């Protein structure tokens, strides 16, 4: 594969999706159809349908392992239908969440085992990992305060309404994943004003995927 796969990760309230939307505006002008932006769970029809089931606030009876399996299933479909074809076309692929989210949220947050969730996703992805992962770092309390203050109530999902203890476990899980993959993770201080976070993100991607921006 000739393309380059970069993921955005971070705990709830880190602002990574808002940052990604701003970054897309810039990159669409710079590299146009060489860019693919996608998300997890989702990214195509089947995976978006699975997303609805996972995040539906009414599905309170969902078993934690069922949740993890659904994420892995959505990820598999997303990979084969969306990500891999784009990489084969030499595109720069930016993805909002990937395997690291499952390891942090289901493995650590749900306490079903980080190693077990990682193994499950190795099967789903055939061990494909991103070239680099940009991690938007923010303290748990700050992130949750942002959600409470700014997010549209209609957009708050099943994971957003979990306990503070759950979100603390997720953050600790992310820290462990980051430490174990220090060569892949690039951290950004997400407590900064959004313009600065956006500028930092653009600068990093320009550096790690410079071949796409030579003529821009």
Helices and strands, with pairings:
Blueprint: E1 4-9, H1 16-31, E2 35-39, H2 45-55, H3 64-88, E3 92-96, H4 99-109, H5 114-125, E4 132-137, H6 140-150, H7 164-180, E5 185-189, H8 194-208
Parallel strand pairs: 1-3, 1-4, 2-3, 4-5
Helix pairs in contact: 1-8, 2-3, 3-4, 3-5, 4-5, 4-7
Describe the fold and architecture.
One of its GO terms (cellular component) is cytosol. Keywords: ATP-binding, Kinase, Nucleotide biosynthesis, Nucleotide-binding, Transferase. ATP binds at residues 10-17. Belongs to the thymidylate kinase family. GO terms for molecular function: ATP binding; dTMP kinase activity. The longest helix has 25 residues, at 64-88. The protein is globular. It has a five-stranded parallel beta sheet with strand order 2-3-1-4-5, sandwiched between helices. The chain has a single domain, classed as P-loop containing nucleotide triphosphate hydrolases (Rossmann fold, 3-Layer(aba) Sandwich). The mean pLDDT is 94. It has helices at residues 16-31, 45-55, 64-88, 99-109, 114-125, 140-150, 164-180, 194-208, and strands at residues 4-9, 35-39, 92-96, 132-137, 185-189. It has eight helices and five strands, in the order E-H-E-H-H-E-H-H-E-H-H-E-H. Helix 3 (64-88) packs antiparallel against helix 4 and helix 3 runs parallel beside helix 5. The chain starts with a strand and ends in an 8-residue tail after the last helix. With 216 residues, the protein is α/β, with parallel strands linked by helices.
């Amino acid at each position: 594969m000739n393309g380059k796969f970069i993921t955005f990760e971070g705990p709830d309230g880190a602002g990574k999706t808002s940052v990604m939307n701003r970054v897309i505006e810039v990159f669409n002008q710079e590299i146009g159809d060489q860019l693919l932006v996608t998300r997890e769970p989702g990214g195509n029809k089947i995976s978006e349908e699975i997303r609805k089931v996972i995040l539906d606030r009414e599905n309170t009876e969902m078993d934690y392992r069922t949740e993890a399996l659904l994420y892995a299933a959505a990820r598999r479909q997303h990979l084969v239908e969306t990500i891999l074809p784009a990489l084969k076309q030499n595109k720069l692929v930016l993805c909002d969440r990937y395997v690291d989210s499952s390891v942090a949220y289901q493995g650590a947050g749900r306490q079903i085992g980080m190693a077990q969730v990682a193994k499950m996703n190795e099967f789903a992805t055939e061990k494909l990992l991103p070239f680099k992962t940009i991690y938007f770092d923010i303290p748990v309390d700050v992130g949750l305060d942002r959600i409470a203050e700014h997010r549209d109530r209609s957009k708050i999902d099943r994971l957003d309404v979990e306990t503070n203890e759950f979100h603390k476990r997720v953050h600790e899980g992310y820290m462990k994943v980051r430490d174990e993959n220090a060569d892949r993770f690039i951290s950004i201080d997400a407590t900064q004003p959004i313009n600065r976070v956006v500028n930092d993100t653009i600068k990093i991607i320009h550096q790690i995927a410079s071949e796409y921006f030579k003529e821009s």
